[in-house]
Design brief:
The complex is a heterodimer of chains A (573) and B (366). Chain A has 24 helices and two strands. With 573 residues, chain A is mainly alpha-helical. The two termini of chain A are 26 Å apart. In chain B, strands 7-8-9-3-10-11 form a six-stranded mixed beta sheet, sandwiched between helices. Chain B is globular and about 80 Å long. Classes of the chains: A mainly alpha (573), B alpha+beta (366). The interface between A and B is medium-sized, with 30 and 37 residues.
């Protein structure tokens, strides 16, 4: 009997002649905010790409589109995304099955380790790989050349292949985590019945297990595809030295090269349109290839599945997984921490060359301390604001259900599905004076971008917890004599508080390590942690960059431990 | 304690008309059970009373206070109507203790602290939840949560409490207990209760008066439980409120008889109102069919099921299957019949109805 929700509840108050209407106010604010955050930046990009001094003109757009460097960048973007999606999905699938369904030892530990790439900022990883394998100068390349007397460097990470490799190692957890949780929630009797009916182990995997987890695979692959297409950090760190560009890094290069001149930003806008088009087409193709059918057979409660015995393959597979973990998790991590302590870049990584001077340098440098302060300020502010705005929008969408709630939902997800670089371009165009407000070079322009980028996180988190809170709880409070506002404060908010806190950390963490948008928006005094690591490295101060990166990793790890603790205790409510 | 009056309530969901010019009065200090099939608009009516939705026409009165009037543009906010409510899912707030749940309505009304404590204590005593004050709802069973919800409704209103299918989520035994308890508490306190259910069994156990609604949100009959059972107003009520058999009647050569593949002239006198121009049926309850070897109506016993307190018989009368129920005690005193026997049957209290358009989809076995 939920039919009544189809009716607007706001007209209740109207008949009383009440002036103040909380529901209407929240609905209005939600629409206005999302219009400002989502619609205007995108509209500004389109306007600047196609209009010049108020006149419609395709000149700029066609010249950008036919420029051979830009076309090469587009082609690179597509190639990288294609291979990263294919290989990342296969790798995620393989390890999900291995850890979810086989009897391989040390599962708990391996699972925890496989989550690390997910929270580790990819651009810091790319830095580590660059330190190890960049041409002749890379630490491991030098060592290999010396040891095996090789005439040339055996690996070159500054290549398309290198970029693809590093991106795979950071994006495969998307599929891995989705599939592991789907496997866990799957009813094991489905597989057991197939075995009883006479199917072999292989047939069960092909005909039962795989089709059932297809929606999870498809969702994970989509995340990989979008992330890879929009990714800035890895291709910029590994590709710039060899003039390998992708669309996001090309946009960055155009804008930073023009040092803020309007022409560069306009070219960036035109290129952004191109990137959005590529993402859009990729989404359509992905939908065609992996049409995800919904299966309700996956249940909410967890059951113990029958594990597949690996027998003789057990230890070789264990060695392969351990090796994978060592390569993708341990090596970059150790590299960053070791290089952070080396006296001068290039010196062998032996205790004799170790020092803590890099750390004391970064902690006495005002620019670096400012960047930590800025990032903390931005992450906390964006986290808090998004948390409250997200709850408000989620409440409007789930409870008030005004006309056009579909539009509201779409608008809140829109900024996240457009690449961060494009969003940054839109934010520059919107907030640098052309509409009367100039925030350029202030910290507020970064905050605006973060809000737009992360609002959907907190909205979804709040939506999920609101759906757990049945509307009858609020109605019972009304019947007990609480006003609408009081019922919100006394009942609904306390009940969704755990979801709100989780929502805060969901924003705080990625915002702490954010690089893509802030690298386009920062001013001389508004560097963020990510930007500072990035520019220290650009300036050649690699040990200091590593030291700061290690500090970032420590902060992120601590916060991640906190969020796990909080989401654990959440079950108590 | 106040009576509740609905006058000419009309309500639409989109283009679907749920209630049309619906009027109903709940006498004060009574339990009125609003019974009807799922989706008939009974919950809609309760939500109108609570003020969660706004009817398009009509007035709602609680005692001599008008809480809603479409013409006079009155719509008192939910929190000012003073109607207690117990929802189907209890809606006990999971983050508050039992005591906090129960005192919440009084705290919102800013009653003095001492009175709050006394009344909360009394309410918890009423629902036999003393000693659980500090518990969180997650530590209670479904029945206990239900009782907390009732206690909360009791302190939130002296006038009217709406119970919306409050026991459907409980197991059968607990359901029975809760009904008795609700009845006892109400008798003691004297609150007016509007009890909404689709379960006529529960309604019978609880109510002073019953109101039967049909699929289209129309009121078919209001009356005491005896009225409803013994004197159903029409075929819908007859069929909805219990098990029933319907046998088509036809007139042949001036004689009225049962049409069950063959024609069996009806031996006894029929109630008034047979109209040969319409399709007519005879309606009879399973416990109103008795075995009588002298009767010319002969049926075959297909199956006998012993249900503890009673015997269920499935008889074949021509092409028609009949259901008969006899109290086990009677059966043991009289002679029992066995599967395969042929018996003569006699109808007590038969009713004449026009053959219907399937108003109630519930089968006889429901």
């Amino acid at each position: 009997m939920t039919l009544y929700r189809n009716r607007k509840r706001s007209d209740l108050a109207a008949i009383d002649g009440k002036k103040f209407n909380l529901d209407l106010l929240m609905t209005g604010i939600s629409f206005i905010l999302l219009f400002i955050f989502a619609v205007i930046p995108i509209a500004m990009i389109a306007y600047n790409a196609f209009f010049y001094k108020g006149q419609f003109s395709l000149k700029l757009f066609t010249s950008v589109m036919t420029n051979k460097h830009n076309l090469a960048a587009m082609w690179n973007t597509i190639k990288i995304a294609f291979w990263v999606t294919i290989c990342g999905t296969l790798m995620g699938l393989f390890y999900a099955w291995l850890l979810g369904r086989s009897d391989i030892p040390c599962k708990g530990l391996m699972r925890a380790l496989f989550h690390i790439p997910y929270m580790f900022p990819p651009f810091i990883g790319a830095m580590a790989w660059d330190i190890l394998f960049s041409g002749r100068g890379g630490y491991l390349n030098t060592w290999l050349m010396k040891t095996f007397n090789l005439p040339r460097a055996p690996f070159n990470i500054n290549s398309l292949g290198g970029i693809i490799f590093v991106e795979i190692s950071y994006f495969f957890p998307f599929v891995f985590m989705q599939v592991v949780s789907a496997l866990e929630r799957m009813d094991p009797t489905l597989e057991e019945s197939a075995r009883i009916a006479g199917a072999s182990q292989g047939t069960v995997i092909r005909k039962i297990t795989l089709p059932l987890v297809t929606p999870a695979i498809s969702a994970g692959a989509l995340l990989i595809l979008i992330s890879s297409l929009a990714h800035f950090g890895v291709p910029s760190i590994l590709g710039f030295s060899k003039n390998i560009y992708t669309l996001p890094t090309m946009i960055y290069a155009l804008i930073s090269r023009s040092s803020g001149s309007f022409e560069g930003i306009r070219q960036g806008a035109a290129l952004s349109i191109m990137l959005i088009a590529v993402v859009g087409i990729a989404l359509i193709i992905q939908k065609k290839v992996l049409s995800s059918g919904g299966y309700d057979i996956i249940k909410g409660k967890s059951m113990r599945p029958t594990l597949i015995k690996l027998r003789g393959a057990k230890y070789p597979l264990l060695i392969i997984s351990t090796l994978t973990l060592v390569i993708i998790v341990l090596m970059p991590l150790v590299t960053i921490f070791l290089v952070a302590m080396v006296r001068a870049y290039g010196l062998p990584l032996i205790p004799k060359n170790f020092t803590f001077k890099n750390y004391s340098k970064i902690f006495t440098s005002k620019a670096t301390l400012d960047s930590i302060k800025n990032s903390l300020f931005l992450s906390v502010t964006a986290g808090l604001l998004c948390m409250f705005l997200g709850v408000m929008i989620a409440y409007v969408v789930n409870r008030i259900k005004p006309k056009g709630k579909g539009i509201l939902e779409l608008l809140s997800v829109l900024p996240y599905s457009i690449p961060g670089t494009v969003l940054a371009v839109g934010v520059i165009l919107t907030w640098s004076g052309s509409l009367g407000i100039n925030l350029y070079n202030t910290i507020w322009i970064i905050l605006v971008a973060y809000l737009a980028r992360y609002l959907s996180f907190s909205m979804e988190s709040a939506s999920a917890s609101l759906q757990q809170v049945h509307s009858s709880l609020e109605e019972a409070a009304r019947a007990c004599g609480a006003s609408h506002t009081e019922s919100l404060i006394d009942i609904t908010l306390p009940l969704i508080r755990p979801g709100m806190i989780a929502g805060f950390f969901l924003i705080f963490l990625p915002a702490m390590r954010e690089l893509t948008t802030s690298v386009l928006l920062y001013g001389p005094y508004t560097r963020t942690l990510g930007v500072q690591v990035y520019s220290l490295r650009e300036a050649g101060m690699i040990p200091q960059a590593s030291a700061l990166a290690s500090v970032a990793i420590i902060i992120i790890t601590i916060c991640n431990a906190l969020i796990t603790e909080i989401t654990k205790s959440r079950k108590g409510v | 304690m106040a009576n509740v009056r609905f006058e000419n309530i009309t309500f639409h969901y989109g283009s679907h008309c749920v209630l049309k010019n619906f009027s109903l009065t709940v006498e004060k200090s009574q339990i009125m059970c609003l019974v009807g099939p799922g989706g008939c608009g009974k919950t809609t009516l309760a939500r109108c009373l609570l003020g969660f939705i706004k009817p398009e026409t009509g007035n709602i009165w609680i005692g001599d206070r008008c809480v809603f009037s479409a013409e006079k543009r009155i719509n008192v906010a939910t929190e000012q109507r003073g109607v207690g409510v117990v929802f189907q899912d209890y809606a006990v707030w999971p983050h508050l203790t039992v005591l906090e749940n129960v005192t919440y309505p009084m705290r919102k009304r800013r009653l003095p602290k001492q009175e709050i404590n006394e009344r909360a204590k009394y309410a918890l005593e009423q629902v036999r939840m003393t000693g659980y004050e500090k518990h969180l709802p997650s530590q209670l069973s479904g029945g206990q949560q239900q009782r907390v919800a009732i206690a909360r409704a009791l302190v939130s209103s002296d006038d009217v409490i709406v119970l919306d299918e409050p026991i459907t989520n409980l197991d059968a035994k607990l359901r029975e207990e809760m009904l008795v308890e609700i009845r006892m508490i109400q008798k003691k306190i004297g609150t007016t209760i509007l009890y909404i259910t689709h379960d006529q069994g529960a309604a019978l156990k609880l109510c002073d008066k019953m109101a039967i609604m049909d699929w289209n949100g129309r009121l078919r009959q209001i009356g005491t439980d005896e009225d409803i059972i013994l004197r159903p107003a029409d075929r819908f009520v007859f069929e909805f409120i219990g098990l029933s058999n319907f046998i088509p009647l036809v007139e042949k050569n001036g004689k009225i008889g049962l049409s069950v593949g063959e024609f069996i002239p009806y031996p006894d006198s029929l109630p008034e109102g047979f109209d040969s121009s319409k399709k007519m049926e005879i309606g009879v309850r399973p416990n109103d069919i008795i075995f009588d070897d002298a009767s010319p109506i002969r049926a075959k016993v297909r199956r006998v099921v012993f249900l503890g307190r009673e015997y269920d018989y499935f008889l074949q009368l021509g092409t028609k299957e009949l259901r008969v129920q006899h109290i086990a005690l009677d059966v043991s005193q009289l002679s029992n019949v066995n599967e395969g026997d042929e018996v003569g049957i006699k109808f007590l209290n038969p009713r004449l109805y026009e053959a219907n358009q399937h108003e109630v989809t519930q089968e006889v076995t429901a």
